[in-house]
Specification:
Elements lengths: L1 H50 L3 H63 L3 H9 L4 H76 L1 H34 L6 E4 L2 E4 L4 H9 L11 E4 L19 E5 L5 E3 L4 E9 L3 E8 L2 E11 L6 E2 L4 E5 L1 E2 L2 E10 L2 E3 L1 H4 L2
């Protein structure tokens, strides 16, 4: 029973250590991802500063950077707390070992003093020879032999405990050094956060100062967004109408090429089953999310409903299909340059602001297939992406992993 309890305790300790190591790796991975995101945002801000006067995108990027920095600081706080907890546990273990070492040393010192007083081996022999009988002599011999073994054993325990104590002290010193390194990084992050908040305030002031100019730019952008929404809605309405009316006539021929408008139900089901796991069409930072929003500075200005997401990306970024499908159409829309529509059964994905397109209508594409390259429009490198279920726009961030 005792062995079974010890086995269970050992298993629990090993499981706890594995979970702790996994948490540490997860924290380190998350911090690395946040630091990478901040570095990428800084690079995009530098590109924008050099080539663009569009402060609104810069403000969105800086605010995302602030959010990432705050999350990074929160991760550091959790890591520091974990270090402090470990330091307390390690200190308690050191205190326990120190108490045991002191007790063992005291007992050992008593044995040494006793042995010193009786260090003359002749006294030991006389003690045995003075026995009244052989039994008493054997008992006295056994006592002296046990006394010698006890001294050796006690000396070994003292040495072993001292070694454990030194190991624990080294671990404690390492923990404290690691905790201090994290604290130093946190202090640096807090300073960076203050600087980034200053950047945000400067951009807000700039937008407020040139309110008329930016409102003119905003009005132009709003017209472009509304035109885009109408165009995409019309394209998808036409595509779904063709799909619904194709039950009797499954295919048509134009110029010798046969095309089908029948909805691939299996592809639709597969696409739906991957909700929340679809890959992003490009690596970047979301600067305009799905839905209805107000202007971040002009609080009473309602922006047009965003049917998708806009990503700020690195210059020359390739755009990739998020799922298997068929290229339905390629159109050019003012303010959004080339746009690619891909059909996935009853689902549609739309990729806009492309400089070049590497597919054509009718092409079958696989997940991750390159559709084109992002264009630089008004000095900004952005990808606009939409996802529809038949005639209903969806929030892409709920579908993408």
């Amino acid at each position: 029973m005792r062995r079974r309890i010890l086995y269970i305790v050992a298993v629990l300790l090993i499981a706890g250590a594995a979970a702790s190591a996994q948490d540490t790796r997860r924290q380190e991975s998350r911090k690395a991802a946040l630091q990478k995101e901040i570095a990428e945002i800084n690079r995009r801000l530098k590109e924008n500063t050099q080539s663009s006067s569009r402060a609104l995108t810069d403000l969105a990027l800086v605010r995302r950077k602030i959010a990432a920095r705050q999350e990074l600081i929160a991760e550091s706080d959790r890591e520091i707390q974990a270090f402090e907890d470990s330091v307390r546990v390690r200190q308690r273990e050191i205190d326990r070992l120190q108490a045991r070492h002191d007790t063992l040393s005291l007992y050992y010192n008593r044995l040494v003093r006793s042995a010193y007083k009786n260090r003359d081996s002749r006294v030991w022999y006389m003690y045995i020879l003075a026995s009244e009988n052989l039994g008493q002599a054997a008992r006295r011999f056994g006592y002296l032999r046990g006394f010698s073994r006890e001294m050796s054993s006690q000396a070994e325990k003292v040495r072993r405990t001292q070694a454990e104590l030194e190991v624990e002290k080294e671990r404690l010193a390492t923990l404290k050094a690691d905790a201090e390194a994290v604290r130093q990084q946190r202090r640096s992050d807090v300073e960076s956060l203050r600087s980034e908040e200053g950047e945000s305030a400067t951009l807000v002031a700039r937008l407020e100062k040139d309110r008329r100019k930016y409102q003119q730019d905003l009005a132009k952008k709003n017209r472009e967004v509304e035109a885009l929404n109408r165009e995409i809605a019309a394209i998808i309405r036409k595509a779904t109408s063709q799909s619904r009316s194709s039950s009797g006539k499954k295919s048509s021929s134009k110029g010798g090429k046969s095309t089908s408008t029948t909805v691939d139900e299996a592809l639709s089901s597969s696409f739906a089953a991957n909700k929340g796991r679809l890959p992003w069409p490009a690596a970047g930072t979301v600067v305009d999310s799905y839905g209805q929003h107000y202007h971040p500075v002009y609080k009473n200005v309602k922006l047009p409903f965003n049917n998708g997401v806009t990503l700020s990306v690195a210059r020359g970024t390739q755009v990739k299909a998020v799922f298997d499908g068929t290229v339905s159409q390629i159109v050019v829309i003012p303010g959004y340059n080339q746009c690619v529509l891909v059909q996935h059964g009853s689902y549609f994905t739309f990729y806009c602001k492309l400089k070049s397109v590497s597919v054509k209508a009718g092409d079958k594409v696989k997940t991750g297939a390159v559709l084109g390259v992002v264009d630089t429009i008004s000095g900004e490198d952005q990808l606009h992406f939409q996802l529809w279920k038949e005639r209903d726009p969806q929030d892409p961030e709920k579908w993408l992993k």
